[in-house]
Structures are given as structure tokens and as C-alpha cells.
Amino acid sequence: MLITHITKSAKDTQKLGENLAKEILLSRTSQKTVASARGFGEPKATVLALRGNLGAGKTTFLQGFAIGLGIKEKVLSPTYVVMKHFNIFYHFDCYRLKDEKDVLELGWKEIISNPKNIVAIEWPERIKKALPKNIIKINFKTLTENKREIKLKA
Ligand code: ATP
Ligand code: MG
Asked: Where are the alpha helices (DSSP H) in 28-152?
């Protein structure tokens, strides 16, 4: 499934994030839980890889996404930390990383193995080798000062 959205403001982008979070929560209450309870495959977290240039709107999108998950704390760019964690939601910003070593040290394997967790990664290209196969890919592109193209691939 590939969906392309054009947003015209930061608010639009946040709303898109909020809607995706709600969809993910809804889809989890149905078939996936049943599948993992029956033991089909390894238990897995929901993983989102957000790619795009600096200032393209990845963090902005995740602010809305967290709202959709019912998280009260405001999601900020984790400038000086690689990971921030709010309940089941894990936010990684890998911009400053060379490779996957640093995330592995943060308990990456446990985090992505827990089917309750929702893990969002900015700059996922930095940790390519650590990324699981079935992930939701979201690509951001700056079109003009306030316009962004956002492609969702799941
Ligand atoms: P970085 O790679 O540095 O982490 P980022 O992709 O996370 O960058 P944001 O921190 O979300 O980018 O910054 C996006 C900036 O662009 C914000 O200042 C936001 O207000 C502005 N902006 C303007 N229009 C839009 C839009 N349509 N969608 C998202 N952000 C927008
Ligand atoms: Mg960011």
C-alpha cells in the first residue's frame, strides 16, 4: 500500500500523524493480536521508519502521532539523546549515529521484539542493518516553505 499526501502546514502534518496512530491502534485490537497469540511468527513491535531532509517534518509528524496514541508529553527533537520513551512509544533520532551499535546498546532487540511497542525512527538509514523487514516507511520531502510531500508505504 502506497499513499501520497501533500500537507500545507505543520498542523496538517501533525493531523496525518495522529490519524495514522489511531489506525494502528485500531488494527492492533483485531487480527494482529490474535495472530501473535496463536504463535504465528516472532513477536514484533510496530516499527515506523521516517526518512527525509532536515526540517522535512518527521518530528512534527510524530508530535501528532503521539497525540493519536494518547500520549500527553510533547514529542520534541531528541537533540542530545538518541532515544526517548513514553509508555509503549519509542522515538529514536539516529541523525548523529554512524551505525547501529549505539541503538543495540539501548536495548534495541527487546524494544522491537515486544509486540506492545510502537517504535518510530528518524534517520533510519543510519541503522540500516538493525531494521526489521516489515516496517511502515514514511518518506518526507520539502516542496516549499510550508508544503510537504509525505509518502506512506506499508
Ligand atoms: P530533523 O531531520 O532535523 O529532525 P524533521 O524532519 O524532524 O527534521 P521538524 O523538526 O519536524 O523536521 O521541522 C519541520 C519544520 O517545518 C517545523 O519548523 C515546522 O513548523 C515547519 N513546517 C512548515 N510546513 C510544514 C508542513 N507542511 N509539515 C511539517 N512541518 C512543516
Ligand atoms: Mg526531527
From this structure: 33-37, 58-68, 101-105, 108-113
CA distance 89 to 78: 14
**Which of 59, 93, 140 maximizes ligand 1 atoms within 8 Å of its Cβ, making it the mutation to test the pocket?**
59
Q: Which of 14, 60, 138, 151 to mutate to test the pocket of ligand 1 (most atoms within 8 A of CB)?
A: 60
At residue 85, the pLDDT reads 92
Grid coordinates 524494544 are at which residue? 111
User: Helix-strand-coil percent breakdown of the chain, rounded to 5?
Assistant: 35, 25, 35
Greatest mean pLDDT among 22-31, 35-44, 47-56: 47-56
Q: Which domains does the chain have, with CATH numbers?
A: 2-153 (3.40.50.300)
pTM above 0.70, yes or no: yes
Measured from the CB, is residue 27 less than 6 Å from ligand 1? no
